[in-house]
Amino acid sequence: MFLFKKLLTNSLMPLSLTVLLLVVGLVLLWFSRRQFLGKALVTMGVMLLLALGYGWGFSPALKALELEYPPVVDASNLAGLKWVVVLGGGTSSDAALPLATRLSDASLARLVEGVRLYRQMPGAKLLVSGGSVFGYGSDADAMQALAIGLGVNPADIVLDMESPDTETQAKLIRTMVGNERVVLVTSASHMPRSIGLFERAGVGYCPRLHIIWRKTIPDLVPLTCSLHTKVFWRHSESSMRNWACYGGGCVGNNSRVVCDFFPIVLPLFGVI
Q1: pLDDT at position 240, please?
Q2: What is the DSSP string of 57-91?
Q3: For 27-64, how does the pLDDT look when each residue is reduced to its tens digit (9 = 90+)?
Q4: For the chain, N or C: smaller number of CB within 10 Å?
């Protein structure tokens, strides 16, 4: 079921939808009499390609998600909390790479901020979470190695190397921390969805959550910029994944996760 969900979700992400519209439209134009439909699909595909490539609409949507929770700048008021939970965001399986390079940009940023908080919270444990997905490296294993390299006491590091996704992370971490509150560290756009899943799992979290802010990029980008700027493709995918879940109600302090399949279902109805 997990494999099916991942494959179907990825196939309905913005770039996949763009390619699908263009391919189907061209097939209709070349090999059928449904010329109007073919032209309409190609036009939609080109318009979506431009919107994705230049960040029109998607970057503001992503920024709105990031503003949902304020970042923790000073962790002095977190004294007494025992858990800093860092959610992984991707890791390479190439052991020949340096530790910092093996982690994705998201995982590296989350870990560095998690270590910063850990150092300001005497007696706290650093719980790094993320299993291997589709044969890639384990987030938890790579983050543990880098955390030790950054000076974290190995005895203070707790691993969750089994969780393939956020929902599973919430459930397993609940069994590990019990009823104790945690400081949750993840990307800003991922935080609302994570909070909903952790709430449903019964994990207590700090009222002031720590999040990672992306660099601010103008909503309108000059046409002279590269159309295939990968940061905008990432913004569009993150916006669709997390806003789809936002529409399902899995955000906010009193929220509940209605369905983990919203990133799959809503695009079918044209929700972007």
Answers
A1: 57
A2: THHHHHHHHHTSS---S-GGGGTT--EEEEE---B
A3: 999 999 999 999 999 999 998 888 777 766 666 777 77
A4: N
DSSP 16-67: HHHHHHHHHHHHHHHHSS-HHHHHHHHHHHHHHHHHHHHTTTHHHHHHHHHT
Which amino acid is it at 190? H
Phi, psi of 131 (to 5 degrees): -95, 180
CB–CB of 81/206 below 8 Å? yes
Name 118's Cβ contacts closer than 8 Å, sequence gap at least 6. 84, 124, 126, 152, 156
The upper half-sphere exposure of residue 27, i.e. CA atoms within 13 Å in the direction of its Cβ, equals 6
Q: Could you give all domains of the chain from N- to C-terminal order, each with its CATH number?
A: 2-65+230-268 (no CATH), 71-212 (3.40.50.620)
Q: What 3-state class would DSSP assign to 124?
A: coil
List 27's β-bridge partners, or say none. Answer: none
Angle at 218 between CA 212 and CA 222, to 5 degrees: 140
Between 92 and 152, name the one with better pLDDT: 152
User: Is 88:128 a contact under the CB 8 Å cutoff?
Assistant: yes
- What are the C-alpha distances in Å from 203 to residues 153, 173, 174? 25, 8, 5
Rounded to the nearest integer, the mean pLDDT of the chain is 75
Band of residue 253 on the pLDDT scale cut at 50, 70, 90: very low
Q: SS3 for 156-181, per residue? A: HEEEECCCCCHHHHHHHHHHHHCCCE
User: What's the rounded mean pLDDT across residues 132-142?
Assistant: 80
Q: Quick one: average pLDDT of 191-208? A: 80
Residue 141 vs residue 1, higher pLDDT: 141
